[in-house]
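Sequence in, structure out. Go.
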Amino acid sequence: QDHVCSLSKVPFRGAPCSDAAGRQVPYGIIMKQVNTSLSGVLWDEVQKSPFYEYKDSLGNFHQVWFDDPHSISLKAAYVKNRGLRGIGMWNGNSLDYSRETVAEQQTEAMWQALTP
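Output:
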């Protein structure tokens, strides 16, 4: 109800960020899943990022954080306005490069968001 998702602590696995209890989900799956989620798209004003919540078939609660063209464009504008030297997007290969029209539009919008 308060959109707080507690993660179980896992042992350090020897690489940066390897103590995270989550996993990466391809953008195409996120875009399909968010429409049937419990919450729909939620927005975190501090992180400037969207997220959503759902329950799996076993009734376990999940929270998924992601970037979309809006959040990426805000971050790209931040970089540009401060004269920083660049920006990157984590795992662009997780975008949906299928020939589906919606997937092509979503992928193009993500890449375009990197250039404010």
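Check: The longest helix spans residues 69-81. Residues 36 and 97 are 22 Å apart (CA to CA).
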